[in-house]
Amino acid sequence: MKELVLYIVKALVDEPEKAEVKEVAGERATIIEIKVAEPDRGKIIGKEGRIIKAIRTLVNSSSAKLDKRATVEIVE
């Protein structure tokens, strides 16, 4: 899951070397944290949040196949 999100994020931003994706496993769910450079944060969110919503949809559907829960957050 982490690799999928990292691949998508690096394709969207101008500074892919500064993009980081961290996976934090909890008891019930996994949290995927995205950290990018300040100017690239808007590119990850998109107009009206459409891009981050699409990333969350992909993560939710792929985690559902594994019978797990995952959420995506953008970290400053």
Task: Give a quick set of tags describing it.
about 80 residues, GMP Synthetase, Chain A, domain 3, 3-stranded mixed sheet, 3 helices, about 40% helix, about 20% strand
Describe the structure.
The protein is 42% helix and 22% strand. The protein has 76 residues and is an alpha+beta fold. It has one domain (2-74): 2-Layer Sandwich (GMP Synthetase, Chain A, domain 3). Strands 1-2-3 form a three-stranded mixed beta sheet, covered by helices on one side. Strand 1 and strand 2 (30-35) form a beta hairpin. The radius of gyration is 12 Å and the shape is globular. The mean pLDDT is 93.
CATH superfamily (homologous) name: K homology (KH) domain
Query: How many domains would you count in the coordinates?
Result: 1
Helix content: 40-55%
Number of strands: 3
- Poorly predicted segments: none
CA gyration radius, whole angstroms: 12 Å
N-to-C SSE string, H for helix and E for strand: HEEHHE
Strand arrangement, largest sheet? 1-2-3
CATH architecture: 2-Layer Sandwich
Average predicted local confidence, pLDDT:
93
Topology:
Layout: H1 2-12, E1 20-25, E2 30-35, H2 41-45, H3 50-65, E3 70-74
Parallel strand pairs: 2-3
Antiparallel strand pairs: 1-2
Task: Offer a quick outline of the entry.
This protein is of the alpha+beta class and 76 residues long. It has one domain (2-74): GMP Synthetase, Chain A, domain 3, CATH 3.30.300. It has helices at 2-12, 41-45, 50-65; strands at 20-25, 30-35, 70-74.
